[in-house]
Structures are given as C-alpha cells and as structure tokens.
Design goal:
The structure holds 2 protein chains of 2 kinds. By secondary structure, chain A is mainly β. Chain A contains no helices and 9 strands. In chain A, the strands form 2 sheets. A 5-stranded antiparallel β-sheet of chain A has the order 1-2-6-5-9, with no helix packed on it. In chain A, strands 4-3-7-8 form a 4-stranded antiparallel β-sheet, with no helix packed on it. The N and C termini of chain A lie far apart (about 35 Å). Chain B is of the alpha/beta class. In chain B, helix 1 runs parallel beside helix 8, helix 2 packs across helix 3 and helix 9 packs across helix 10. The chains are: A mainly beta, B alpha/beta.
C-alpha cells in the first residue's frame, strides 16, 4: 500500500487516499477497495456506518491512515477490523 | 497525493459555494476546479517544464497553481518587483515554461523563444472556454508541486522546492476539511510568489473559506474590503498591520467588526504595535505564525489565548511571550543546536532545526536535510522553559567579535527602548582588532534630537556587556526593508561600511 494511492470502494461511492501505508487489505462496506473498483455493490450490515469526506481514518496501532476524499454509505476497515476516526486538535488559522 | 485533490474535494462537496472574490468577480469551487482541469490540458499541450506566474494575485494564480499540479509540472510564481536583470536570470532557470501574466515584459527581457506566454486575461479566457477531456490522466502527485525562489536577502536566490507530499502534510495537519462557515471570508493581501500567499490559498480552499484577494496592498483598500466582504480572517505582515493602524488613526473609516482572526508573520512584529493592535481589535484573535518557504509555511504559532493572556499579564515571563513565535505544531519536531550540532537546553540560543513531513528543506540543486531528516533553518533562536520559541535573527547575521558570537537582535532590542530611536539595525563591521565589531544604523523618531554616541554606548554596556557596544554609529532617514517587511541586512552593511 503506497502512500498517495487512491482507492475506490466496490460497495459504494467512497474513495480514499492512502496517507500512511501498512500491510493488510483495505476494505469499505465489507469488500476490498481497489484503484479501479466499480462501486456497484452494496455495503454489508456490519460495515454500513458510512465514510465522511475530509476525515482521516486510522487503525488502533496508528500504522495505517486513510483520507476519505469522497463519502459513501460503506464504512472503512483493515482486514475486517473497523478503522476509527482520527481526532485532530483544532489549530488557530495561521494563514 | 496531489494537492489538486484539496480543490477537487471542496468542489465535489460544495460546487456552488463561492471560493474566490477578485476585482468584484466571483468564482465558485466548481468553476475553479473546472478551470484548473482546463489549464492542465493547456499546460500539457505546451510542453512546458514549469508553470510560472509573473503577476499580482488573481484567479489566474489559483488556476495556474492547481492546473500545474494536475499536469505534474512545478508551479513557480515569480517576484514581479525584481529588477529586469534579476528576473531575466530567474527566467533562464525555468525555461521552457508556460508563463501567465506580464508577457510583454518577458518578451522584452528574455532572449528565449521556448516559453509559452499568456497575459492574464487570455489565460483566464482560454481556461473558461476550454473543456477538460474526460480521458485525461492526471499526475499522481509524487513529485514537485511548487518551486519558489527565495528572496535572497543574504545571497543569490535559491530555488526551493516543495513536493505535493510536503504541502498536503501541512494542510492535513493544520486545517480541518470544510471547517469554515458559509459566511467566513479570508482576505489575502500577501503576494502570490510568497509561501504565505500559497499557503493562504490552499488552507482556505480546504477549509472552504471564501478567499478575498487584494492584489496590491493599500491600507484604505484593505479596510474597505473587510467591510464590503464582511471578512472574518486575514493574514498580514507586520508592516501592513502598522499601515492599517496608521490609516485608522488618521480617520480612514471601515467597519472591522466582522474580523475574528488576524494572523501575522514574515517579519519581526514590534511589541508596541502588537499591544496597540490587541487594544484596537478587542474581539479578534491574533495568531503569530513562524515558518519558512522550505517548511511549507507555518511550523510554530502563538495563538489567540496566549496573546490575550500576555497582553493582560503583569507577570514578566508571560508578558514577554508576545515577542515569541509560540510553540511548534504537533506535527513538527524542533531542536536548538550549537555550532557542533549538539542540542541546547532552554534559555540558550543556537540554530533552529526542524523535522516533519511538511519540511522539504530541498533546493533544485541539493537537499539541505541532514542524514536524520533535520532541516537547519539558518534562523537563530532559543526556547523558554515552557517551550515557547523566541527568534533572534538569521544565523548568518551573527556578529563574530574576537570569537564571541553576538546576536544583533539583543542589541537592537535594548536600543529600541531609547525614546529617540524609531528603528535600528545592528550588523557586523570590519574591525582590525576583533575581526568584526558591532555597527548600528539608527533611524530617529520624527523631530527628536540625535543622542550622544556615548549615551547609546553606555546604554548597551549597562544592559548587556562591553563586547556588544557599537563601534560605528550612523543615522539614516529609514532602513532598507523588502516588501514583506524583511530587513535587508546586506544593504545595511553596505550603508555602514560604504
């Protein structure tokens, strides 16, 4: 998984860009994501919480990080384990 | 990841929201994104290796920036204030380029026929008429996004390069996507060839804050635009803030009640001016940002609460923080090191080293990063016990007198407390006995009398030590600054030695 790679969901309209890569399969809506996935499928019940554009998603170890660049009804996972929202401390606008 | 994705995300989520206001014209996120895609086609067709802007800020700067990014060609905004000979030298270094802006000037000063020239209006028209091709392969964003020539206040301009990854790291680390309200507007008055001008565009677009461009700064126009567009955010250099306040003092009207955030940086903020500003804009949050071209803009900041606390405090340590540039961003590592490269404890001045994903530290010719990825900024400074960074000038500006390092800032700070002195610069002058000695160029406050040389020498001796005492004292009507408010110490040296 190379940082900068843009992946599409097979289960919904979600698209992500890999910020930090690691080992394992990145999934959305329960199906593996791919650079040329169609998005025609549907999310499984366990992975239908949705993805939010502009949010970053990480695994528990912090070794994998994705940026959601297009939202969708499927939720993101790594090897079947749901990814969580990365909390960012708001900074004052400096430019 | 390509920086153009920042614009694409904004355009997909809010295509009709106004992204940019310039000269009374309005552009939505959707329009800017379309225009950038059309510009990409234009750039690819031209075969250009760089996309340059030789122009004031306008919609063309945004379109050229993101169009170049999509085409995988570095965007290189040029300083239109440079003299012909200097500018011609830079043009030679970027040919073949697609150049947007002052085409007549390029024709006049450049011998090359390998550049593609577009006056601004022709460029904007071309990208509005063109339709982007659905099959276009856009660049993946693994290479260079921006090339900026450094201002060259101490040496010939260097071509600093920022990769897509540097800028994206900076934006993702500092801006929350779509965090601005629909009414938020950022007034951008810094020139497009400065890193602050580029960061302002990228940050506002990612936050979905409306960008209001002021192509050529004048305090009256700034005040007018704040009122007309109900501006909420603005970045200024200290010189601009000083001129805005002078205009307000003279009675220039402007309703500034919409301003919630004023960020400043790019040069030293006089203490008197920031105290005054905090009083004049009681409802605005002030942020002091320190950063360099080579670090994709801000690496350290002093936030609004810290400003208000320091302004109101009686405690000398807390009050002194107004002169600090705050603490490093959570995504930045910082060390102060001595000449042997050893990390220094708080309170001791040395060179500032920075590390982080947004730090490029790279020039066209070579990278300045060390083996562990640290960037030596050539800026000198120290941190206090709580990690607040204080700048004390460029490492190259240090005066070396008989082996002793003297920072010009400490001498200037002492002399600025003299009631007759409006401005002062300390630089190295040649000395037969010491190699270098301290020379000062002084600007008197209007109408006040020149103090005795001995009085100034005694003042420095009493507050610092005898090695800091100036050997050469000369008076000038003003000191040379560049348009960003940066003191041109090389020229001060020439004034004193010549």
């Amino acid at each position: 998984m190379k940082p900068g790679t843009r992946l599409k969901s097979a289960a919904c309209s979600t698209e992500v860009v890999i910020i930090k890569g690691g080992d394992g399969a990145i999934e959305c809506g329960g199906s593996p994501m791919a650079e040329d996935a169609s998005g025609d499928g549907a999310p499984t019940a366990d992975f239908a919480a949705g993805s939010i554009v502009g949010k970053r998603y990480v695994n528990a170890l912090g070794t994998v990080e994705l940026l959601c660049v297009k939202p969708g009804p499927g939720s993101l996972a790594l090897d079947g384990v749901a990814l969580v929202l990365k909390e960012a401390k708001p900074l004052p606008a400096s430019d | 990841m390509n920086i153009a994705l920042l614009l694409e995300m904004a355009a997909q989520s809010e295509p009709d929201r106004i992204a940019l206001v310039c000269d009374g014209k309005r552009w939505s996120y959707g329009e800017l994104d379309q225009a950038a895609r059309a510009a990409c086609e234009l750039i690819k067709a031209s075969g250009a290796q760089q996309v340059a802007l030789l122009d004031e800020s306008s919609e063309a700067a945004v379109i050229a920036l993101f169009g170049a990014a999509l085409a995988g060609v570095p965007y290189c905004p040029l300083n239109y204030r440079l003299a012909d000979a200097d500018l011609a030298g830079l043009l030679d270094r970027i040919t073949p380029a697609l150049i947007v802006g002052d085409a007549d000037r390029v024709r006049r000063i450049s011998q090359s026929n390998d550049n593609t020239l577009y006056p601004r209006s022709e460029f904007t028209l071309a990208v509005m008429e063109a339709r982007s091709d659905a099959d276009t392969e856009y660049d993946a964003g693994e290479g260079v996004a921006i090339q900026l020539f450094t201002s060259g206040t101490t040496a010939a301009p260097k071509a600093a390069i920022l990769r897509h990854s540097n800028l994206v790291s900076y934006i993702l680390g500092t801006v929350e996507f779509a965090s601005a309200n629909e009414d938020d507007a950022a007034l951008v008055s810094v020139p497009p060839y400065h890193i602050a001008g580029i960061a302002a565009l990228a940050s506002s677009i990612y936050a979905q804050r409306r960008i209001v461009l002021l192509p050529s700064f004048a305090p009256e126009d700034w005040l007018k635009l704040v009122e007309a567009e109900r501006v909420t955010n603005s970045f200024v250099v200290p010189t601009m803030l000083g001129r805005i306040i002078q205009a307000m003092d003279k009675g220039v009207k402007g309703n500034v009640s919409s301003l919630r955030s004023i960020a400043y940086g790019g040069g030293k903020m006089p203490l008197e001016l920031i105290h005054r500003s905090l009083d004049l804009f009681p409802d605005a949050g002030f942020t002091n940002a320190y950063g360099l071209t080579e670090t994709s803009s801000t690496v350290s900041l002093l936030g609004p609460d810290e400003h208000r606390r320091a302004h109101a405090s009686e405690d000398p340590v807390e009050r002194a923080r107004l002169a600090s540039v705050g603490r490093p961003l959570p995504t930045i590592e910082m060390e102060i090191r001595d000449e042997e490269g050893r990390a220094l404890p708080p309170g001791q001045a040395g060179e500032i080293y920075l590390r982080g994903d947004q730090v490029s530290g790279e020039y066209r010719e070579k990278s300045a990063l060390d083996a562990e990825g640290w960037f030596p900024t050539r800026d000198a400074g120290y941190v206090d016990e709580e990690g607040y960074l204080f700048l004390s000038g460029r490492a190259d500006d240090v005066i070396v007198r008989g082996g002793e390092n003297i920072s010009p800032g400490e001498i200037e700070d002492v002399l600025l407390t003299h009631p007759s002195i409006a401005d002062v610069a300390a630089v190295a002058v040649p000395s037969v006995d010491w190699g270098e000695a301290v020379g000062i160029a002084v600007v008197l406050r209007g109408g006040l009398e020149q103090p005795d040389d001995d009085e100034l020498k005694e003042m420095v001796r009493g507050r610092l030590r005898s090695s800091r005492v100036p050997q050469v004292i000369r008076y000038f009507p003003n000191l040379p600054y560049n348009e960003m408010g940066k003191l041109l110490r090389r020229q001060v040296k020439d004034l004193l030695v010549g």
